[in-house]
Amino acid sequence: MAAPANTVKPKTSPKSIKFLFGGLAGMGATVFVQPLDLVKNRMQLSGQGSRAREYKTSLHAVVSILRNEGIRGIYTGLSAGLLRQATYTTTRLGIYTVLFEKMTKADGTPPNFFMKAMIGMTAGATGAFVGTPAEVALIRMTSDGRLPADQRRGYTNVFNALFRITKEEGVTTLWRGCIPTMARAVVVNAAQLASYSQSKQALMETGYFSDNIFLHFCASMISGLVTTAASMPVDIAKTRIQNMRMIDGKPEYKNGLDVLLKVVRNEGFFSLWKGFTPYYARLGPHTVLTFIFLEQMNKFYRIYFLDS
Hints:
GO cellular component, one term: membrane
Shape: globular
GO molecular function, one term: antiporter activity
Radius of gyration: 21 Å
Low-confidence stretches: none
Number of strands: 2
CATH topology: Mitochondrial carrier fold
Subunit structure: Interacts with SMIM26.
Subcellular location: Membrane
Helix content: over 70%
Distance between the termini: 35 Å
Strand order of the largest sheet: 1-2
CATH architecture: Alpha/alpha barrel
Membrane topology: Multi-pass membrane protein
Structural class: mainly alpha
CATH class: Mainly Alpha
Strand content: under 5%
Mean pLDDT: 84
CATH superfamily: Mitochondrial carrier domain
Number of domains: 1
C-alpha cells in the first residue's frame, strides 16, 4: 500500500511578521507616491459646491501646488499618509495574508477567485475602520492648501491633526466617513488583492513569467487599473465627507449617496471619475511598490529565518 501523500503545509512566517511586513510595505510605497495622493485629493475636491473648478488637469494641479506652496507643499500630509499605512495597510494585508494561508489547501492549491475576493473584502473593511482617523487627517491636510489663508485648518502634523479634531469637534469626528471609507476599502480590496493574486497566477500559467519582480510589477499594474475603475466613485464620496464643514449648523452632505447624487447633478456623471489619472498614477505604483516590498521582505525572511 502506497504511503499517504505528505499533507503538511510548508512553514510560514508568524502572524506578527505578516502584519509588520504589510505595514512597512505600505509605508515604503507611500513615501514615493504621496504627491500623487495629494493631487488626487485636490482634483476630487475641485469644483465642489458652488466653487469654480480650480484645476483643469492633473498637470495644472501639480504646477499650481508647486507655484503656490513650494516643493515642500507637494509632500503635505506625508505624516498622515504614513500613519494611515501603519494602521490601515498593516491590518488589511496582515489579515489578508493570514486568511489566504488558512484557505490554501494542504497541497498548496490557492483559494479560488471568489474566495480571494471575500478575503480581500473582509481584510479591507477591518483595515479601513482601524485607519479612518488617519484617513480623515490625511484628507484635511492635503486639501488645506487650496483654501484661503483665513479658512485653513493649519495642522502641523498628523498627531496635531488628531488632537485638534478630537478637541474641537469631538472624538467621533475621527471616524467621520467611516461607512464610505469601509465601502471603498471593500471595493478596493476585493478588486486589488483578488485581481493581483489572480493576475499573478494567470501570468505564471502562460509560461512566459517566473516568480520575480517583473511578474509582481505586471500583476500589480493590472490590479491597479481594475481597482481604479471600480473604486473611484466611492473614493470621491469618502473624500468629500471627510473634508466637509458644517454649513449653518448642518453637515454639507447627509451620506455617501448624497455626495454621489450631488456630484452627478452639479458636475456631471463622469465627475465621479474626476482625478482618474492621478488616482491610477498613485494607485498603480503604490500597488506595485507595496507588493514588491512585501514579496521581497517575505522572500528574505524565508531565506534567513525559515530555510536556515
